[in-house]
């Protein structure tokens, strides 16, 4: 670890080793070499003067990259792709004359970017599935536990702890559908040439258009893709980067919503993130249990959501068949969006798998508000007993304000039931009124909604990705 130069905290503190490898130099430049192998093999199979011996030589050296030699070549040539062509060629002297034959820099650069983005999305997908599994267990466990529902963060009708979890899950499910769509539809740039016309390849194949098209198909198949983009300039449309980073930002939005809700619940002392035995919540206040993991989710999510602007502006400002003002920005904005979302999902999985629920605190808060929520049912019961609906409505309005004064101004408990019992308009004892104070009577279809959601939406998904659930969860670095 170097201590005298800047190092991205996404690498040193947050992102997993798996995601960092996907966007590492080794992965990038070995993929360049795999693409050169695929190009040479396809050109050989289509009749160009490329030999099997040359292809075999290239294939034997896809991973032994001499970075010092590459750096020397780049200082001399001021061109990263040609630096690696020469570095590769020194290892493959027989194949050197045909490396990169007919191609432009974007053949390796853009095709590699697509390959890495797809692998990154697959890792994101797998982590999303694991989080959904954790939340599914949580939702099922607490599907019947009544809790205060909030609108405007003001107490509204009751929901259940498990039902609230399905709201988090549903948004993440929408993100998963978007991720799956991106993975399924990503296409390679292919072999399009300097302005997208494939003129160099048409020249190599003596004007044979069919062989030029077959060349792309062979490369795509070898690299595991079903398609190449139909038309392009020198590069694939930078809208592709925008779509991918937007997909990642969707995950970040859902994560931030979850983490923000949990931070509020932590304040209420109803549900908390995991807190380890020796963990310190505050350097000044030893008693504190700050929701640090959820705060970190929100912080990283904010970064990703704002990062969407980078590929958006890049796509909007490309000139004709290409400019190079995208390059430096892409090196930062796309990989770091993946690293940040990867970190977010690792933290989210850690939190979701260890949520701490405090039912007694939840019940205390429910009972504080329940008399207000039960007032309509009480009014209907009193009407059945011969009361006047309009008069009862007015009495409830007046008594509710008095009870509210007791709570807000005097700091006392909610005494609405006692006030009603003392009011002859209701004609009911405190015991008779208390019958209406069962929280389970006010949660509507919450348990059924949870069961239906888990059975209809989540169970088929978890079955589809059963293999993913057996994978090892990433351990948090900090």
Tell me about this structure.
The protein has 478 residues and is mainly alpha-helical. It contains 20 helices and 4 strands. A two-stranded antiparallel ribbon has the order 1-2. Strands 3-4 form a two-stranded antiparallel sheet. A hairpin with a 2-residue loop joins β1 and β2. α3 runs antiparallel to α4. The model has no long low-confidence stretch (mean pLDDT 94).
Task: Please identify the oligomeric state.
Answer: single chain
The shape, in one word, is elongated
Helix content: 55-70%
Distance between the termini: 16 Å
Reading side by side through the largest sheet, how are the strands ordered? 1-2
Largest sheet: 2 strands, antiparallel
Number of H- or I-type helical stretches: 20
**SSE order in H/E notation?**
HHHHHHHEEHHHHEHHHEHHHHHH
The proportion of residues in beta strands is under 5%
Helix/strand structural class: mainly alpha
Low-confidence stretches: none
Please provide the count of β strands.
Answer: 4
Rg, Å, rounded: 31 Å
Name the average pLDDT: 94
């Amino acid at each position: 670890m170097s201590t005298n130069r800047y190092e991205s905290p996404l690498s040193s503190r947050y992102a997993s080793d798996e995601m960092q490898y996907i966007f590492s130099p080794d992965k990038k430049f070995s993929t360049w070499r795999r693409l050169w192998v695929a190009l040479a093999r396809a050109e050989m199979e289509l009749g160009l003067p490329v030999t099997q011996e040359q292809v075999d030589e290239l294939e034997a050296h896809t991973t032994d990259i001499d970075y010092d030699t590459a750096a020397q070549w780049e200082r001399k040539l001021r061109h990263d792709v040609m630096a690696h062509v020469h570095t590769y060629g020194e290892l493959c002297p027989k194949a050197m004359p045909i490396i990169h034959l007919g191609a432009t820099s974007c053949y390796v650069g853009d095709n590699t970017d697509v390959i890495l983005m797809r692998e990154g999305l697959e890792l994101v997908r797998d982590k999303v599935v694991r989080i959904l599994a954790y939340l599914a267990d949580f939702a099922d466990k607490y599907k019947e536990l009544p809790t205060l529902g909030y609108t405007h963060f003001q107490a509204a009708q009751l929901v259940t702890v498990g039902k609230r979890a399905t709201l988090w899950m549903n948004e993440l499910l929408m993100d998963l559908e978007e991720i799956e769509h991106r993975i399924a539809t990503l296409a390679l740039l292919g072999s399009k040439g300097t302005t997208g016309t494939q003129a160099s390849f048409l020249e190599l194949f003596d004007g044979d258009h069919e062989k030029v098209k077959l060349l792309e198909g062979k490369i795509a198949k070898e690299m595991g893709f079903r398609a190449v983009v139909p038309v392009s300039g020198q590069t694939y449309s930078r809208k592709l980067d925008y779509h991918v980073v937007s997909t990642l930002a969707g995950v970040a939005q859902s994560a931030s919503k979850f983490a923000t809700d949990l931070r509020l619940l932590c304040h209420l002392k109803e549900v908390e993130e995991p807190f380890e035995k020796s963990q310190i919540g505050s350097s000044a206040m030893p008693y504190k249990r700050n929701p640090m993991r959820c705060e970190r989710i929100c912080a990283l999510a904010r970064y990703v959501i704002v990062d969407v602007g980078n590929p958006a502006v890049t796509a909007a400002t490309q000139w004709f068949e290409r400019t190079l003002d995208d390059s430096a920005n892409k090196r930062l904005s796309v990989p770091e969006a993946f690293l940040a979302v990867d970190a977010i999902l690792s933290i989210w999985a850690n939190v979701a798998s260890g949520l701490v629920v405090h039912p007694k605190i939840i019940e205390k808060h429910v009972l504080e508000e329940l008399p207000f929520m039960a007032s309509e049912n009480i009014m209907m019961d009193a009407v059945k007993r011969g009361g006047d609906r309009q008069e009862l409505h007015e009495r409830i309005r007046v008594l509710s304000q008095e009870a509210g004064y007791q709570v807000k101004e005097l700091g006392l408990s909610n005494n609405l039931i006692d006030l009603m019992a003392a009011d002859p308009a209701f004609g009911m004892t405190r015991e008779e009124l208390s019958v209406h104070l069962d929280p389970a009577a006010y949660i509507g279809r919450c348990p059924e909604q949870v069961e239906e959601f888990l059975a209809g939406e989540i169970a088929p998904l978890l079955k589809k990705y059963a293999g993913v659930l057996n994978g090892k969860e990433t351990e948090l670095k900090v």
